[in-house]
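Entry 14. Ran structure prediction on the chain below.
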Amino acid sequence: MPLTGHPVVTRLTRAMKLNSADIENLAAIFERDLSIRKREELVVHGSEFRSLCFVKDGYAIRYRLLRSGKRQILKLILPGDVIGFPVSFFDRSSGAVVAVSELTYAVCPFDAYVRLCYEQPQFGLVLSWIAAQEAATYAEQIVNLGRRTPIERLAHLLLEIHARLFEVGRAGEASFELPFSQEIMADALGLSVPHLNRVIQQLRAEQLITSSSRFIELTDLSGLRRLAQYEPMALISIPLPGHF
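Output, structure tokens:
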């Protein structure tokens, strides 16, 4: 299955040099492209999941639903992300993944990726690099929910979404189409929808963003970064053999 133009290739090549043979070897383990509809669950809480799904188009969320009925969103899933990571490493899922738009992804069995890593260890390394990036994102989410004020949380999340979309060619230099509803954004930030609305209005009033429908323009990028204490970190490239 060809991976030309797939956002996961864009993401992987930022960490590792991939030649055409590498991409062909990766493509060979993918079974097919699949699509699911909006609101369809891909991962069910408590179930076994043994696939890696590399998102091509569309958006999803990874979340936990508590007995009280409250939902905490753990990750906003964008093109180039890997669904099934880290759940495929455990006997069952500690959360769920649901599509929030039509979602298209390339899927490969987890065992097939493991075999590829034995044959070409660089693909194991690149998964480690992705894990490091995920860990950094989760650390910021902990700081967001634990210590940042609501306006700082929203500013930080908008900057993060923009950076991740920009990385795979899905955003402008200081603008992007926000693919998530206010309900989803509120659940990601631990806020109510009315509170989120007030915070959005505050960012607009301070001329840090402008928005029309879901189009967001970061009109004062440096000011937004100062407010959020946003410190972007670029992944270093995987060292080549003989260059340690």
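The longest helix spans residues 122-146. Will compare against last week's run tomorrow.
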